[in-house]
Design goal:
356 residues, 2 domains, 5-stranded antiparallel beta sheet, 43% strand
Length: 356
């Protein structure tokens, strides 16, 4: 297998990105002074923000240009989707084909290690507090509206209510809009006959006039409601990729499956930057592993995501599979008086710091 793409879900509270949970493991006689751990492999989480726009035509839409000079208003209800911000998160997942044991000699002073819940190294002989990472549970998946859909119904005058035809109603509504605008201008310029007594009262009056105007304009221009959701795709690459389809996007349907031809393909190019041969997906059975502490040196790659030949994002990412594996000599742990402390990046398996 050269890559793996998994669509995770819509509007997902993705637990992969929540704070890492760690467990302290003690090297003792009952486990032969050895601690088992797994090196990670890189999973790239591609997140797409999608906004659903719901247009509702106003009852007087066809009179909008005639009475208000507003052009290109929606004449009928419709739904449209917009593809927003894209982001990539590097997530380390255990590589079950690369599991090792870090061994300590008997008598070493309090040897221990911190591992994630799924067995990846965080530190050796050092206390480890996992950093707080961004979590998709913080995303507000509640519908976000532009304000027009929530406005209260306009206060219809008796003249508007008594108007017999739709054309007549539109004309009366337009006149009411202009009267509101004139009243607001008179208050702001001090030309109104009865001005509000103070600044706070003036502010409230202006707000009421603006709300009424907006509600009346919606009778012509219609309303627009926005609802934002998120879609995640998990990609585990083992080699460079070119024009690999992540999902498809349709302005009418939103995000659809990669094999659904109703949408245009959103694809990724992933190119390794280093000349280092990528790590094999599984080690050869006859390969004799060196002794010592195994760790990763991840490779760098450039990720580019396109839609209809338009570059949506370009970012440099770390990919463990594009790097190499190294080993620390066992002798590093033999100092019983001052055991070495090692910190790791659990998402890549790389060494962060060594303290001797």
């Amino acid at each position: 297998m050269k890559y793996l793409i998994i669509p995770i879900c819509f509007m997902l509270n993705l637990t992969l990105l929540a704070q890492t949970k760690v467990t302290k493991k003690i090297a003792a006689k009952n486990n032969n002074f050895g601690i088992t751990y797994s090196l990670p492999k890189t999973m790239l989480i591609i997140n797409a923000e999608v906004t659903k726009l719901t247009y509702k035509a106003g009852p007087y839409a066809k009179y909008a240009e005639k009475y208000l000079g507003v052009k290109n208003v929606a004449m009928e209800d419709r739904t449209q989707y917009r593809l927003g911000k894209l982001s990539i998160v590097n997530k380390g997942v255990p590589d079950t084909d690369n599991t090792y044991i870090v061994e300590f000699k008997a008598g070493t002073v309090a040897p221990f290690a911190y591992l994630t819940d799924d067995g990846m190294l965080c530190s050796i002989n050092a206390e480890y507090t996992p950093p707080v990472e961004p979590s998709t549970s913080a995303r507000d998946n509640a519908p976000k509206q532009d304000g027009t859909a929530d406005d209260k119904a306009p206060a219809f005058t008796e003249e508007l209510l008594m108007a017999g035809s739709e054309a007549r109603q539109a004309e009366v509504a337009a006149r009411q809009i202009y009267r509101i605008r004139e009243s607001r201008m008179n208050i702001l310029t001090g030309e109104a006959d009865n001005l509000p007594p103070d600044g706070e009262a003036m502010k409230l009056v202006i707000q009421q006039l603006e709300r009424q105007e907006k509600a009346l304009v919606c009778l012509f221009a219609g309303t627009t409601a926005e609802e934002t959701s998120w879609f995640d795709v998990a990609l585990t690459p083992y080699e460079s990729l070119e024009k690999e389809v992540l999902f498809r996007f349709s302005e009418r349907l939103g995000i659809v499956d990669a094999d659904d031809l109703s949408g245009a393909p959103v694809y990724i190019n992933l190119k390794a930057q280093s000349s280092t041969a990528p790590l094999s997906e599984t080690p050869a059975k006859e390969e004799k592993l060196p002794k010592g502490l195994a760790y990763n040196i991840p490779g760098k790659a450039t990720a580019e995501i396109y839609l209809n030949r338009k570059l949506l994002m370009k970012e440099e990412v770390l990919v463990t599979q594009f790097g190499r594996r190294e080993y620390l000599a066992p002798q590093i742990f033999e100092d019983k008086k001052a055991p070495v402390k090692i910190y790791f990046y659990p998402e890549t398996g790389a060494i962060k710091q060594i303290i001797q």
